[in-house]
Write a structure and sequence with these properties.
The chain is mainly α. It has one domain (about 10-135). Helices cover about 60% and strands about 5% of the residues. The chain has 5 helices and 2 strands. It has a two-stranded antiparallel ribbon. Helix 1 packs across helix 2 and helix 2 crosses helix 4 (about 90-115). The longest helix has 26 residues, at about 10-35. The radius of gyration is 16 Å and the shape is globular. The N and C termini lie close together (about 10 Å). One of its GO terms (cellular component) is membrane. It is a multi-pass membrane protein. Pfam families: RDD. This is RDD family protein.
């Protein structure tokens, strides 16, 4: 692979790992927040706020810092800019994080119609295998 060539997107099987890692972690964080803050806030408000805060830290701040969420790092994946193969900018990470919520909402429709948007390079970012990034060097 040439040094400036963008690696192929990670396959669907590999991309399941972050979903089944980051999702339960966010639910756990929301549950802990509901227990800890449930007396001062309504439990569902505390749950939602804690879940969103965890999600933001995991999918935006951690991604900007190290190139992926906890689930992506465990799965050997990285989120890169397609323009220069570097880590995402804060703005790109926020756009992709917000796109993720929209994708969750439209997923049932996509499944019913057989449409696949999983490999869309949203906000100029692509999920790739860490091994594919090493091969280009």
């Amino acid at each position: 692979m040439a040094p400036d060539e963008v690696p192929p997107p990670a396959g669907s099987n590999r991309r399941i790992i972050p979903i089944w890692t980051d999702g339960p972690l966010a639910l756990f964080a929301g549950s802990v927040g509901a227990v800890l803050l449930g007396r001062t806030l309504h439990e569902w408000v505390a749950f939602a706020c804690t879940l969103l805060l965890w999600s933001f830290c995991n999918h935006v701040l951690l991604t900007v810092a190290v190139g992926g969420s906890i689930g992506k790092l465990i799965g050997g994946l990285r989120l890169i800019r397609t323009a220069d193969l570097r880590k995402p900018t804060f703005r790109q990470a926020v756009r992709r994080w917000l796109w993720g919520f929209f994708h969750i909402l439209i997923s049932p429709f996509l499944m019913l119609t057989g449409t696949d948007l999983d490999h869309l390079d949203m906000a100029g970012l692509r999920i790739v295998r860490r091994a594919d990034l090493r091969r280009r060097d």
